[in-house]
Design brief:
Oligomer: single chain
Strand content: 25-35%
CATH architecture of the largest domain: Roll
Structural class: alpha+beta
Shape: elongated
Helix content: 25-40%
Number of domains: 2
CATH class of the largest domain: Alpha Beta
Distance between the termini: 25 Å
Length: about 180
């Protein structure tokens, strides 16, 4: 487990910035101590400084993971945010949408969000901005990208896509066959 290089850190912070904006600093300097990002086998982990000190005692070949996996670097070098980061990112999200109960299942099956399934949206959400998708009971369901701005959503037809699907909590069940 090693610290991120400058290039890796900029890619991670750029991706996180799409969802939480300037709140990245709040993610690193929390009330319960300092947290950091570490890289292990192309995966980026978010963990406390004390956990980093404990993980140093474990050989790299024996270490499976430490902390929460935020995402991974693909073979082409791009950073992909994974659903395991949802709980951490959701609490600092700037732009959110809430889905009607009937649209939740469709989103959890990997489909985009239609205007007919949109319950609420954060004011002044720009187009192509990273958003966190919630149920009406404020449970985070996944990540998305706004296909339309807030103003465009108000004028859109019910069949129009308002948010593109990126990742959701249903991925655990859908990818269960490929994990074994």
């Amino acid at each position: 487990m090693r610290p991120l290089t400058d290039d890796e850190a900029s890619k991670v912070f750029e991706k996180l910035g799409k969802y939480i904006g300037d709140n990245i600093q709040m993610l690193l300097e929390r009330a319960d101590g300092a947290y950091c990002f570490r890289l292990h086998k192309d995966r980026v982990y978010y963990l406390s400084e004390s956990c980093v000190r404990h993980s140093i005692n474990i050989a790299r070949s024996n270490l499976v993971s430490a902390g929460s996996c935020f995402g991974k670097f693909t073979k082409s070098g791009t950073f992909r945010l994974q659903i395991t980061a949802l709980d951490h990112v959701a609490q600092y999200a700037k732009f959110k949408i809430w889905l009607k109960p009937g649209a939740e299942q469709s989103f959890l099956y990997g489909n985009h969000v239609l205007k007919s399934g949109l319950g609420r949206i954060t004011d002044n959400t720009p187009q192509y901005q990273g958003i966190i998708v919630y149920s009406m009971s404020d449970t985070p369901l996944g990540f998305g990208v706004a296909a339309k701005s807030t103003q465009e959503c108000r004028r859109a037809d019910p069949g129009t896509i308002v948010a593109f699907h990126q990742a959701d909590i249903g991925e655990y069940l859908r990818s269960e066959d490929t994990l074994t």
